[in-house]
Amino acid sequence: MGKKLLLQNIDVPGINTYEVYRKTGGYKSVEKVLEQKNPDAIVEEVKKSGLRGRGGAGFPTGMKWSFLAKPEGVARYLVCNADESEPGTFKDRYLMEKIPHLLIEGMITSSYALGANTSFIYIRGEYFYVLRILEKAIKEAYENGWLGKNIKGSGYNLDLYVQVGAGAYICGEETALLESLEGKRGNPRIKPPFPAVAGLYGCPTVVNNVETIAAVVPIVNDGGDAYAAVGVERSTGTKLISASGHINKPGVYEIEMGVPVEEFIYSDEYCGGIKNGKKLKAVVAGGSSVPILPADLILKTAAGNPRLMTYESLADGGFATGTMLGSGGFIVMDETTSIVKNLWNFSRFYHHESCGQCSPCREGTGWMEKILHKILHGHGTIKDIDLLWDIQSKIEGKTICPLGDAAAWPVASAIRHFRKEFEEYVNNPESIQDVKHYFNVHNVAEA
Amino acid sequence: MAKVTIDDITIEVPDGTTILQAARMIGGHVVPPAMCYYTKLKTSGGYCRTCLVKVEQGSEKDPRPMPKPVASCRTTVMDGMVVRNTTSPEIQEARAGVVEFLLLNHPLDCPICDQAGECHLQDLSYEHGKEGTRFEFEKRTFDKIDIGEKIQLHMTRCILCYRCVKVADQLTDERVHGVMNRGEVSEISTYIEKAIENDFSGNMIDVCPVGALTDKTFRFKSRVWYTKPMYAHRDCDKCSGKTTLWYQGEDVLRVTGRKDVYGEVEDFICNTCRFDKKLTKDWVIEGPAEIDRHSVIIQNHTEKLIPKEQVQILPNLPGVDFTKKIES
Ligand SMILES: Cc1cc2nc3c(=O)[nH]c(=O)nc-3n(C[C@H](O)[C@H](O)[C@H](O)COP(=O)(O)O)c2cc1C
Ligand code: SF4
Ligand code: FES
């Protein structure tokens, strides 16, 4: 069994309640930081831990925290990104649903480290029932003196609010999230300025993922060095992986960074192998945005080394032969999967979710979806495949926010690794089984 | 001051200048096209991506290149920055892509569009676009709506530059319009087609780079190239009263702000000047509008060269240091 730092108590009955959570050592990190009275020391521990953002980009959290501007007399905010809308990713939901106090404890400790007196959890609208769970837990935390004025006699004040989104993937992008939190249309902001300088209501703000904030708890309790001792290279600690697709045991797994991909897919401790004894065809390792890899490249790098579940190993080979750890949404596809159909499904999503601010993403996502829809129905041409490639290349890196990249990468990687399959759809349309009439998102307003 | 080199031409500019502004100070071919940025509108720019440039060297201190093309209208220069626009094939390719995206759902109804001849999308397509289209699906369309008595919105032509939204936010008392829906079906809207009634709403027409917002008092009266622009002014208690009158024979067909070569007005004007003063006797005529002598269709291509003493262009000749400080 690998070491667990977040979910070790997940099976304790009643862990979602304050009493049980507290009995298992909950809120110790808050006691510790309030006693030590040294916020900067917490930032140092987080730096030492090597913790990297779990929302997808993997930016070092300690560094992000140290960038936070601290002008005199200006409020600072901590905002937790619980928008979790990347297809294939459901780890934050699991954590909040099962052990909500861990997030709240992390929010208090992190807010103290950053000197924030008001903090927010922004949760996606579809997680409405989780909102209820969080609200209950927050109420318990207030009742027990962990939130509010003069927490445990320390003189530190903190109010924590939960805000629900209204169902837009783009509101997970941190600046769109801030806009939405301010009550505006959720359009990503043009950066700079970065949130660390001008974030929520123009004040310095840190935005972190749910899992990132939860990981601060073990870092404070056991020290940054202990956290960094788990994992390999610059991938320290543990990672929650949302495993889905054609596997025997889909679910959320906490793994030590560095578990070989092969072990993760086939061992009984994790996914338990491919369903119905089928063969592995491809994996999307980090949520729908990251490049898809065929079986041979996900199990071993192009150089023939075993691929590990780390930021570095998954990225080995760049986009030519590698991918990204992303948000840890691990989607497994067996030999029966149609890559074209799957890609169309992803493209449909990005088309639907583009905010429409910048022209390459607004126009390009819809165009790619339409072409894929056409190919999927057996009306495509070889030129269409090349056109898809060209369109994605004109979106990637040219947009305001990374949603454009997120829409481009799946298309590029599917064509890069599975071009033959696209050609098959073009050359032998009659061989396509199961052509239902798929719903095409022509009009988002009606969809 | 910061020294920046754009397409091998070096210029010194005040700190905080954007790459686009620096390029405009140099003038000519190095200026990236800008479809959404508008100097007089705060927070404009960044949306259309036509002004993308390559930053080959970030600054003197940190010479690393920027990993991706940047929007020149929203990126400030750093001392020692090296930028490529027309001299980067990669940027030319990216821009052609952006033009294709902007035209993807555009109706291309130029023959019956009032903006034809002074349309920035036409110019952009002419300069950077490709022949033909690779889009074979049905284009999206919207119904025309009247926003107020004098302005018509033809959303089908809109490129979502957000300029009119900024006009509404920044010039007029009450914000009554914005962007509805998202993605491909985003639309500029007054919500329930509420009329926009305030003294400065007409400026939306002037800032619109395409024919999405048009002056109903001018619609279909004439092609712009058959009209003659004259500078004029009047005493106005609401605005500067400095305008361009567009004549056909003796008749003033429309009144607009005075635009520069980038389509930006000198002053925003009020609706009284724009819509209600259509007689020569309402105005003091100053004379013909400044025009670019190289243009046949002269309207709005009023190239105004920046006086030499304001801008000093420093050629990059090997071994010769032409660097001179320019007084700000
Ligand atoms: C389109 C888009 C959607 C995103 N959605 C999420 C999300 O749902 N949850 C999340 O934590 N980060 C999301 N991110 C990443 C955030 O912008 C941001 O990087 C992250 O919240 C930072 O937290 P971290 O440093 O703890 O990872 C998204 C980014 C983009 C571009
Ligand atoms: S890339 Fe897409 S989602 Fe991001 S700002 Fe541009 S249009 Fe909006
Ligand atoms: S002018 Fe710079 S992005 Fe539109």
What small-molecule ligands were found? flavin mononucleotide, iron/sulfur cluster, FE2/S2 (inorganic) cluster
Average of pLDDT of chain A: 95
Q: Which pair of chains forms the biggest interface, and how many residues does each contribute?
A: A-B, 30 and 35 residues
Shape of chain B: globular
Main sheet summary of chain B: 6 strands, mixed
Gyration radius of chain B, rounded: 21 Å
Order of helices and strands of chain A: HHHHEHHEHEHEHHEEEEHEEHHHEHHHH
Report the order of strands and helices of chain B: EEHEEEHHEEHEEHEEEEHEE
Please indicate the percent range of residues of chain A in DSSP E strands (runs of 2 or more): 5-15%
Count the DSSP helices of chain B.
Answer: 6
Task: Kindly describe this structure.
The longest helix of chain A has 25 residues. Chain A has 18 helices and eleven strands. In chain A, helix 15 runs antiparallel to helix 16, helix 16 runs parallel beside helix 18 and helix 17 packs antiparallel against helix 18. In chain A, 43% of the residues lie in helices and 12% in strands. Chain A has a five-stranded mixed beta sheet. Chain B is globular, with a radius of gyration of 21 Å. Chain B starts with a strand and ends in a 13-residue tail after the last strand. Chain B is α+β, with helices and mostly antiparallel strands. The longest helix of chain B is centred in the N-terminal third of the chain and has 16 residues. In chain B, helix 2 crosses helix 3. Chain B has six helices and 15 strands. Chains A and B meet through helix 15 and helix 16 of A and helix 2 of B. The structure holds flavin mononucleotide (FMN), iron/sulfur cluster and FE2/S2 (inorganic) cluster. The site of FE2/S2 (inorganic) cluster has 13 residues of chain B, from loops.
